[in-house]
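Next up, a chain.

===
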Amino acid sequence: MQVVLLSTITVFDEGLDCHSLSIQPIHATKPGILRHRRTVRRLHSFLKSMAADRSVRPTRYNIGVSAVTTSPVSSGPSAQVRPYTLWQRFLLWLITWTGVLVVRLIGPTLRFSASYEDGAPPTLETRPIVYAFWHSCILPAMYLWRNLQIRVMSSDSFDGEWMGRIMRKFGFVKVRGSKSRGAVRALLGMRRELEQGWTVAFTIDGPRGPRFVAKPGPVLLARATGVPMAVFHIALEKAWILNTWDRSMIPKPFSRALMRVSRKMPVPADSDDSAKERFQAELQASLERVREFAEANVGNVGTTEFPVIKS
C-alpha cells in the first residue's frame, strides 16, 4: 500500500509574503508512515480547501458582514484560543467590560475633526485599504472607526485577548496572530479578507514595540493583493498617558481630537527587495508625517479649517 504525503508547503516567501500554496505528492511505503494515514488524509483535505479559498474573489464590497459570519478567520483548528486559568478568565471579563465602559462613556464627549492628505481615501468607509497606525492611539481610533467591520490583527497573548474582546464590542473583526506568534496564519487571514473586499488595520508598532517603529506587514500584504496602504494618527488635546511601552493615551472627557489620514500608497506586485525597502521607508515616513501634523494642529479643532465632524 502507498500513502500520499505532502511535501513542503510554500505559503510565504522571504518571511511574510503571500505568493503560492503548492501541494506536491511524495510516495512512501514504510509501516510507520502507514499508521498515520488518517492524519495525512485530513491534512491533505485541509490544504486543498485552503487552496480553493484562494480562488474566491469578491463580487460585491458593500454587504454587511457580522463578526459571526467571519468566524473562519478567528476560530477553528488553526486559531484555538489558549487556555486561561480561572483568575485570568475573571481578569479578562473585568478588563474587557471596564474598557468598553470607558470608551462608551468618553467617546461621545470627544470633539473629532478629520484631515486628509491629497490622494487619501475619501471617507472612513472606503474599502479595501491596508491601514496602519501607532498603538498609542488605539482607544480614540476604536471609537471613531467603530462598526465598520474592519479586520484587525491581534496576538494570542493575554493582552491581545482582552484588547481583541474590547474591539469586537465596537464592531471590529479579530484576526489572530502577531509578529511573534502565528504571523503566517494571521497574514493569510488578512489577505483573504482583503480579497473579499474588506479593510484591514495594523497597530503597526505592536504588540510589544519598539515604539514608533513600523513592521513590514502592510507592505507585504499590499504587494500580495494589489490593495493600497494608507496610515493615520489621532492626536488628543488632553489625555491621560499610561506608563506602558507605547505610552497609550486615554482621552479626557470633552477633549479635542484630530485625525490625519495619509495618501494611498500602492505597492506593485513585482517589487523586488530593494523596492520593498523603499516602500517600508515610505510607510515609516508617512506615519511620522501624519503624527506630527495631527499633534501640531489638534488645538485648532473646531475652527473653519478643522471643523468638528459627527462621530
Remarks:
- The chain has nine helices and eleven strands.
